[in-house]
Amino acid sequence: SGSSPxxxxxxxxxxxxxxxxxxxxxxxxxxxxxxxxFAIARAAEKRGALVTLITGPVHLPAPPGVERLxxxxxxxxxxxxxxxxxxxxxxxxxxxxxxxxxxxPIEGKIKKGAENIELTLVKNPDILAGFGRQKSSAQLAxxxxxxxxxxxxxxxxxxxxxxxDLIAFNYFDRKNSGFDVxxxxxxxxxxxxxxxxxxxxxxxAAAEKLLDAIExxxxxxxxx
Length: 224
Ligand code: C5P
What we know:
Blueprint: E1 10-15, E2 20-21, E3 27-28, H1 35-46, E4 50-55, E5 67-70, H2 74-85, E6 90-93, E7 100-102, E8 121-123, H3 127-134, E9 140-147, H4 152-161, E10 166-171, E11 183-184, E12 186-190, E13 195-197, E14 201-202, H5 203-220
Parallel strand pairs: 1-4, 1-6, 4-5, 6-9, 9-10
Antiparallel strand pairs: 2-3, 7-8, 10-12, 11-14, 12-13
Helix pairs in contact: 1-5, 2-3
Residues 14, 74, 93-95, 97, 124, 126-128, 143-145, 158 line the site of cytidine-5'-monophosphate.
């Protein structure tokens, strides 16, 4: 249409799970499907944005017109994302990044033997918070918070701690919301405290609503 504030903007989106190597054949991961992040990438591209989609291992085709970067671990996702920190207009963290990784992945395959073995995990970098720390006033940071029913306050805390402009809170313990389904129930919270509860929507429709809210932010801040 040419009228979207996202027209020509550089948008970076992280999506999917990450895999953290235990040894050459095993990993720690989660059930993220990547559907929400891919839906946002598709919707942003349609609004004329220049979209880079940094994704962990998922079973989804790249949306046409979107630059796709495939990564495996949180460290790889972080390295791929950091390249864009200084130059993107909008960073959306939709990936379910593993919070921890095995401290020292074993080469080859861990042998079966002892009744109990220990795995030491170390914390991964918070990619979105890293962007939030160094973004300029012309850049927007948007995140997700997957929480239980009582997690709205947690989502607000994350918005502040990660220096985000907007956070999309979704329920992980509700049917039709969260991982690996085609629908989502999002509550959008702006850094001004404005809270918008969306109804149960397809992830495509939820992505459009999220981008509507982001466009609104762009207009309010005259980022167009
Ligand atoms: O703190 P929590 O993991 O709940 O925050 C979720 C948000 O932060 C999501 O937007 C997610 O993509 C992002 N995140 C990240 N790097 C991490 C952990 C979370 O970018 N290591």
